[in-house]
Amino acid sequence: METRDILRNLREKNNLTQEQLAEHLQVTRQAISRWETGETQPNTDTLKLLSQVFNVSINTLLGSPRQLICQCCGMPLNEDSLISREPDGNYNEDYCKWCYTDGNFVYQSKDSLLDYLIKNMPNPNNTDEETRRIQFDSYLSQLKYWK
């Protein structure tokens, strides 16, 4: 789905007219109309406001053009409900809600995350703990938080 369709659907789902949304965002009704026809797109600051108004991530507003993964644990963030939030309520699309909560990182060291993964992740091949730790560490080391 394209941004124009997403914006129109969210506006209608929230029972807002173009005029009401425009007033809330402090833009013109014509701006809303141009976004919904695909003539133009909202700028970055307006996307942030739309994210707050509709309680969805910017990635969702843009039609999910990129596959988000938590930059701490590597979990796919394929639903907005999995994405962390800043203390002000804005989405932080870099982290899942379990690794980053209320503006704080849950795992202060990679070893603490590795311990959690070893204990809680399925091990269908019965791989020994040291091999699993090495595998997890290799993957985590590629993520932004652990670089």
Would you kindly provide a written description of the structure presented here, covering whatever features stand out?
By secondary structure, the chain is mainly alpha-helical. The chain is 45% helix and 9% strand. It has helices at residues 3-13, 18-25, 29-37, 44-54, 58-61, 110-120, 129-140; strands spanning 83-85, 91-96, 100-101, 104-105. The strands form two sheets. A two-stranded antiparallel sheet has the order 1-2. The chain has a two-stranded antiparallel ribbon with strand order 3-4. Helix 2 packs across helix 3 (29-37) and helix 6 (110-120) packs across helix 7. It is elongated and about 60 Å long. The mean pLDDT is 94.
Mean pLDDT across residues: 94
Strand runs, count = 4
Termini separation: 34 Å
> Which parts are unreliable, with pLDDT below 50 for 5 consecutive residues or more?
none
Helix and strand sequence:
HHHHHEEEEHH
Structural class: mainly alpha
Placed side by side, the strands forming the largest sheet appear as 1-2
Q: Overall 3D geometry?
A: elongated
- Tally of individual helices: 7
User: From the alpha-carbon coordinates, what is the Rg to the nearest angstrom?
Assistant: 20 Å
Q: Could you estimate the helical fraction of the residues in percent?
A: 40-55%
Largest sheet: 2 strands, antiparallel
Strand percent estimate: 5-15%
